[in-house]
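Progress narrative, work stream C.
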Amino acid sequence: MDNASSFADSFCGEYRVKHILIKPKISNNMSAEEQKKADDEAFALAKKLIVDLENGANWTNLVRNYSEEPISRLRDGLIQNFIRGYVDDALYAEVLLLPDGRFCRKPIKTPQGYHIVLRVKKNDSLANSELKKEENELEKTNETVNVVNSIPV
């Protein structure tokens, strides 16, 4: 196995997948009615973002402005280790149905919230040049994270 293939296997998993995560603003002291309202609002926002994407909105801008998953947000929504058993079954099932380059047409509910997923490619079809680009982007992201982590609190 060459370095590019091992990078894909170790970082991206079976598929190269990006997502936007919208979390309901729920707390333990909320009533059931308030929790449902917060969940409905998160679902509505996720649906709105899908409509925005269908109308040509920029994926990167939506990830930066709306996704509530901080690590993947730094990587344009890229989910690390997208492997069956490692990610939620609902996400995995949706990605299997999507063709490469397409995003889901409905929000996917998981315990974390509502996801909009984009299946970039199945990893065995990635070209070496794309893997090199991802490797370089990952190195830059890791450098940024290291700088942020070194700032005294």
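Work stream C, second folded protein:
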Amino acid sequence: MRASPHPLPSLAAPSGQATAAGVSAVPLWYLYTSVISLALFCSGLIALAPDAVGSTLAPHVLALIHVATLGVVTTAIMGALWQLLPVILVVPTPRTRLSQVHYLAWLAGVTTLITGFWRSWWQALAVGGSIVVLGVLVFAAAMLWLIATAPSR
């Protein structure tokens, strides 16, 4: 078995037949990140409950809302779609390199955006928000490409 030509680290890649067959572990990265984000959201919700009741526009509350929406829900959906859409459509999976780069960019964008909200740092909000929007566009393009290449039934 050859070493992977990709320089990106393998984050808790499963071993066995799935990896040997070339199945990407990247969807697991999204799901692990989603679980970690859920833990952060729950602990933040406990800590910020009084602020959340007072105003949803407080910077820390906005950060917490984005942990839930981008860190938990959207990240889990992306991981599931990277894994399941090719199976459902009976098409080859997108390039592993694309999903790896997308994951790292998505993680950087969401983290920067949430940090910007938490610290009321507007430059980080602009940079993080731009990376998140770019990540959504790349993800949508990859999924639309899968749909377009699917055999008609």
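Confidence is low (pLDDT under 50) at residues 11-21. No further action is required on this item.
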